[in-house]
Write a structure and sequence with these properties.
The protein is mainly α and about 70 residues long. It is built from three helices and two strands. The radius of gyration is 15 Å and the shape is elongated.
């Protein structure tokens, strides 16, 4: 039961961190028509942040095997 509280705190931190990263001021910085490769910068930013959210959540929930 003690293990769940730190996980909940970490998941709450991850939620608010990525909520801030998906908020308008940061999205506005990347909303320019400058292609990164063949994709707009905004699409690349959203995709990378989304992947980091999935990886961060997976590592947090997975924890250590005992």
């Amino acid at each position: 039961m003690n293990r769940k509280k730190p996980i909940n705190q970490k998941l709450t931190f991850i939620f608010f961190l990525f909520l801030a990263l998906f908020n308008y001021p940061l999205l506005g910085l990347f909303n320019k028509y400058v292609p990164a490769g063949s994709f707009p910068v905004l699409y690349v930013y959203i995709f990378l942040i989304w992947i980091l959210l999935i990886i961060g959540t997976a590592f947090t929930v997975r924890g250590k095997s005992e």
